[in-house]
């Protein structure tokens, strides 16, 4: 059994992976973003009472992907929660890190994060393994049946970042430089029967490199995939996605919140639904299909009013027999409601 939870963190990413290994539930984390002064990933770890975290992956050094990590690490230290692996795509040098973020807040938070990681690894021994993603860490066995493979970034993307080669689209929040999207992870979780693709903010050119690749993708059904960069048009690759034929209710998830970039784009939504994928967003909280998407609805789907009512985590559970189920989630309450409940 494996579950994948896309936490509702507004315009950002936070993903929880949970699976069974030797009758023990394990957990992995991909990104950790603060949202409405809360930390949904940390709340999940607390509620589940985990004493170990199998892996943490920082997909790339953008604020909407790492803003909650320092809180999470502080909690792990205070409660002696072991982190077996902390993997990332960033060289820990000042110029390298500053080039990823515009604001002092983001640069300081990222520098503090890597300082904390080194401390927890070298001194406090909470992190057992930490480092830059390389050929030694690209294949991880979650158990005897389920594997995680890191398809990107490769040397090509690292060179593009260092050379400051322009990305497809410059649609970032105030904290982030778009060029750091070259460092985004492209992850594949798979068995011999099915596969899940998690794309963070990966560039279109990266996906195009993996188009028409039967060796890597055709042998397993695509159960679940993430549309990169919050469904942005500039990161959408028809050449890549057309190699997959939806089956067994294949799902596309878009992590998205209120934004000024028209994420997710109409073109992205229409493409996936026209191919037969079931599309879900953390902002809308329900399945969007070709029969329910019309121009008028697209204009209203991501309005502030609907987002405030509908926004929720999107969680899937995949059984050992290969069935994927969408779990019903409770919409997140706004700050006023949360404060009222605490009082």
TrEMBL record:
**Matching Pfam families, A to Z?**
Lactamase_B (PF00753)
Q: Which residues form the Metallo-beta-lactamase domain?
A: 11-101
**Domain of life here?**
Bacteria
- Give the protein name, as stated in the record: Metallo-beta-lactamase domain-containing protein
Q: Which organism is it from?
A: Arcicella rigui
